[in-house]
C-alpha cells in the first residue's frame, strides 16, 4: 500500500497539500494510503458509501453529517485534496503554532475553525444559527425513542435558553463559541495522526 | 458538441475561480480591516484595490499552472479515457472552491459583472464578506512567501522530515536574531537575562540538527528517543486506565442504570481496596509468620484438636461451622502461641499481633477520614457551569467509538444523563404548597420515629426474654422461643425498610435526599441489630469466663492427680508426657468470639447471594417466561422486574464491614474472607444488575464519591471499634490460648517489649510521656488546634460559596441585560417600521416619532438606523 501511495502522489502535490493543511510529508503519504484503501471504487475519489464503511462513522448518530462535511455542496465525490482539507480541521495544534503572529492566515486547525466545523454539524440550513428544530433533530438522533417528544422539546428549550444571549431563540456561532468557552476544544477535536 | 459545451463551462469556471482566488488573496491582506465594519471598510477597499491590480496578472498565470498540475495528478491517479478525465477535472475545479458553485446560485446578478472585470475582483469582495470558511484560497495565496524558505531542507537527516527541519531552522534564526538585538530591547534586566539564557540553550540544542556529521546524528537520535518516550508515555497512560479494576463493568452499569447505582459499585470497589490492605497486613504479619515459624500443629494443647472432638474434626458440617481443624489453625486467635520471639528472625509474634490489630483500625480511620476530606474538597470546588444542557447536547458523543456495543452503551448513557438532568430541573423548579410539605415531612419523621422506637423496644424485650430463657436452660423451650431473637431481627429487617419507603413517599423529597433519609433510617434500625448481637456476645463471654475459672481449679487438681499417680511408681523418671490432645483446656472465649463473627459473615454472605438469585434472577426469569401464558402483562404490571436497591445494598456493605472491624482481632482470617466475598459479589451483582434489573423510574444523579456513605461508614467504624477496644482493655485474656496468654491484660505486651527490647532510658521517657500531667495538656492543645482549623476552613468555605454566588448572579444579570437590550431593539424596530410605513400619509407624525427616538441609548439608535435601511428596501 505504501509503495503504491508514494508512486501515485507526486512531490509537488504533497507540497501543496502540506502548505494548505499543515500536515507533514509522512502524514500525507500515510493518509493517502488510507485514502486509497477506503476508495473501493478505485477512481481516486471517495463516495459517501466509502465513508459509511468506517465503523466509527457508521455508528455515530451524527455520522451522516460528518460525512457530509467532507463533500462540497452538491457533490457526491471527494478527492484526496478535499479529504485532506477536511481532515486538517482535526490536526492537533502544535506548540510552535500557538505563538505564531496572529496576523498570518488562520490555519484550518485553529480553535475557531474547529468550532465552526462543529457548528456546521448542527446548523443544517446554513443560516449560521442553530434553531430549535435543528436541536430537536440532533436530540432525536442521540437518544432515540427513549425520551418522549415533550421532554426532548423541553431539553431543546432549556439548551437555547442557556446559550441564547440576544433573545432570538436560536444559537448563533458566537453564542456557540461562548457555550464551549471552557471546553478544551483544541484537545478534544484533535486526532492523533501518526507521524 | 457536448464536449465543447463542457469545455466552455470548464473554462468559465476556471476563470471565475481565478477571480475568487485573487479576491481572497487580496482579502487576506486587508483581513483585519475587514473584520471591523463601517468606517474602515472604505480604506480597506482602497488598499485592496491597489494590491489586486498589482498582483492580478501574475496570479493568473500561476493559478493556471496549478490547475494543470491538478489535472496531471488526476491522470496519474487513474488511467482512464479522456472523457472521464475531463469530467473529473471539472469536479476537481468545483471542489477546489465550493464557493463558486454557490456564488452561481445566489449571485446571478453579479455574475455578468464578474466575467467582465476579471482583473480587479472588487465585486467579488462584497460577496465574500459573508462569513464562510475559505480554506483553500486563503492558504494558497500565502504560498509565495513560503516558497523561498523551502530550499533549506534539501539534505534530510534520517529522522527529521524536511518541513520539521525548516521550522527548526526558522526558529533558530529567530533566536539568533533575538540574541543580537536583545541589548536594545526595553525590557527589565532580569527578563533580558532570562531570554538570553533560554535562547542560547535553544540554539545550542537545535543547531546540531542543522549542522553536519556527529552533532546531527546525535540530534536525530535524541529526537527519535523523545518520540519513543512520548509513545511510551501514551501507552503507559492507556495501560494505567486499563488497570483500574472493573472500570468497564462500572461504566457499563452507569450508562444503563445511572450514577446512583454506579455509586454503589464504586463504593464496593473502594471497600475492596481497603480490605485488600487489611488482608495484606494480617496475612503478611500475623498468619504467615505463625504458620511458617511458629511451633507446628500438634505440639501444644492449644494447637491440637481435643480428644473428644477428634473423631469428627474433619467432617464438612463441623468445618463449615468453623469448628474442628478450622478452629485449631492460624485462622483464629486461640492457635497463636505466647512465645515472645519465634523462628530464626526472632519475630515478636504477640507484639506483631497486637500492633496489627491496632494498625488495621488506625488505618481504616485514616483512610475513611482522608477520603471524606477529599470528597468534601471536590464538592466545594466543583464548578457547576451555566451551560449544563448545552454541554450535554454538543459534547456528549465520543467520536472515537467504533464498537457497536460501546455505541449502545453510549446511547444509553446519554439518555440516562438527559433523564437525570430533566429530573434535576423538575426538582429545582418544584415549589408547591410549602406548609403542606413541611407538615407532611414532620408527620413522616414522627411516624418513622415511632417505628424505630417500637422496633427498639421489641428488640430489647426479646433480648431480655431470651436471656431469661438461657438462664433457665434452652432445652425446656420451644423452637420459636429459642430462635425468637433471630426471627424478630430478620422480620424487622425485612419489613421496616418497606414501611420507611412508603412513609418517605409522603415527604416529596428529591430522590437523592430521599435516598439519604432512607439510608439513615435503616441505619438506625440496623443499629438495633448490632446492639442485640453485642449484648448476646457479652453474655457469652461472661459465661465462658466463669467456665474458665472453674476449669482452672479443676486443672490443678487434674495435674496433681496426674503427678500423684506417677510419682508413687517411679520418682526419677522424667515427667510423663501426656499427648496434648488429652490435656484439659479452657473454653478460650476469644476464639469463640472470632468464630461467631466468621459464622455471621458467612451466613450473611449466603443470604445476600441467595436473595439475589431468588429475588432478582428467579423473579426475572418467571416474569419473562410466564408472561407468554398469563392473563395480565407481568412485565409492565404487578411483579415486573426488580429495581436495584441501592440503600439496602450500601447498608449491607457497611454493616458487613463493621463486623469485619469488630471481629478481625479475634479471627485474623476475617479480612481474607471479606476480600473473597467482595470479589464474588462484585461479579455476581454486576451480572445480576445487567441481567435481571430494570433502571429506576426516576434516575437521579449521584456523585461517584459519596460522602454520605463515608459518613455512615465512619459511624459504623467508631461503633465497631468501641466493643473491640472494650474487650481488649477490660477483659483479661484466656490463660491457655492466644498470643497474650499468661498476661493480665492484652496491652501488657507493649510494656513488656519496652522493658526488654529497648534501652532503659526509653522506658523512662515513655513513662514520663504517658504521665497524665503531660497527656492532658497535649490533648487540650490538639482539641484547640482542631477547633481553630475547623473554624478557618468553615470561613473559607463560606467565602468561596459567596464568591460563587456572586459570579453566578453577575452572569445571569449580564445575560438578562443583553437579552433586554435585544428585545427592546426588536420592539423599537417594529415600531419604527410601523411609523415609516405610515410615513407617506402622515408626514407630520414623522418628526415627532423621530424626536422621541433620538433620546434613546446608543444601541437603540444603531438598530434604528438599520430599521431605516430596512424600510427603505421595502419601499423599493
UniProtKB/TrEMBL annotation, chain A:
Name by which UniProt lists this protein: Calcineurin B homologous protein 1 isoform X2
CDD domains: EFh
Domain of life the protein comes from: Eukaryota
Keyword field: Calcium, Cell membrane, Cytoplasm, Lipoprotein, Membrane, Metal-binding, Myristate, Nucleus, Phosphoprotein, Protein transport, Repeat, Transport
Family recorded in the similarity comment: Belongs to the calcineurin regulatory subunit family. CHP subfamily.
InterPro entries in the record: Calcineurin_B_homologous, EF-hand-dom_pair, EF_Hand_1_Ca_BS, EF_hand_dom
Coiled-coil ranges (or none): none
Organism: Salmo salar
Gene giving rise to this polypeptide: LOC106611297
Record domain EF-hand: where: 26-61, 110-145, 151-186
TrEMBL record, chain B:
Record keywords: Coiled coil, Membrane, Transmembrane, Transmembrane helix
Bias type Low complexity, positions: 842-852
GO biological process: cellular response to mechanical stimulus; detection of mechanical stimulus involved in sensory perception of sound; vestibular reflex
Ranges of Basic residues composition bias in the record: 10-20
Compositional bias ranges of the Acidic residues kind: 141-152
InterPro entries (alphabetical): TMC (IPR038900), TMC_dom (IPR012496)
GO molecular function, one term: mechanosensitive monoatomic ion channel activity
Membrane topology: Multi-pass membrane protein
Compartments it resides in: Membrane
Parts of the chain that traverse the membrane: 272-293, 313-335, 347-368, 442-463, 484-506, 518-538, 708-729, 765-789
Biased composition (Basic and acidic residues): 26-69, 81-91, 101-126, 153-166
Domain of life: Eukaryota
Key word Transmembrane present: yes
A GO CC annotation given for this chain: plasma membrane
Region (Disordered): 1-166, 834-855
Pfam family, one: TMC
Sections of the chain in a coiled coil: 793-820
Similarity comment: family membership: Belongs to the TMC family.
PANTHER family listed in its UniProt record: TRANSMEMBRANE CHANNEL-LIKE PROTEIN 1, TRANSMEMBRANE CHANNEL-RELATED
Protein's name in the database: Transmembrane channel-like protein
Organism in which the protein naturally occurs: Oncorhynchus mykiss (Rainbow trout)
